[in-house]
């Protein structure tokens, strides 16, 4: 059960990153690229786990930290994008 939920977290994160430009076109391009880099690192971690180089705990720890740090950055960027939109409307 735990492994399924942990894998699901990574899949949902990848779907959000892939759809981000469509969901929120006002997001900065650098942030979208950072999301893709994080997805790439998580995929590499998955390959390391599949080949036996890393254990599942290490993969979950690093993937969880990356995803949660991305969420923090997402909240900051979403707030900034909202502020830019308000300034554009009032200007």
Automatic annotation (TrEMBL):
Highest taxon above the source species: Bacteria
Membrane-spanning residues: 6-24, 31-50, 56-75
Membrane is among the record's keywords: yes
UniProt keywords, alphabetically: Membrane, Transmembrane, Transmembrane helix
Protein name (Swiss-Prot/TrEMBL): Uncharacterized protein
């Amino acid at each position: 059960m735990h492994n399924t939920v942990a894998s699901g977290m990574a899949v949902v994160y990848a779907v959000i990153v892939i759809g981000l430009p469509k969901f929120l076109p006002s997001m900065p391009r650098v942030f979208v690229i950072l999301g893709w880099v994080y997805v790439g690192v998580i995929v590499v971690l998955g390959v390391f786990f599949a080949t036996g180089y890393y254990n599942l705990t290490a993969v979950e720890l690093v993937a969880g930290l990356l995803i949660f740090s991305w969420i923090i950055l997402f909240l900051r960027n979403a707030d900034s994008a909202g502020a830019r939109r308000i300034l554009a409307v009032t200007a």
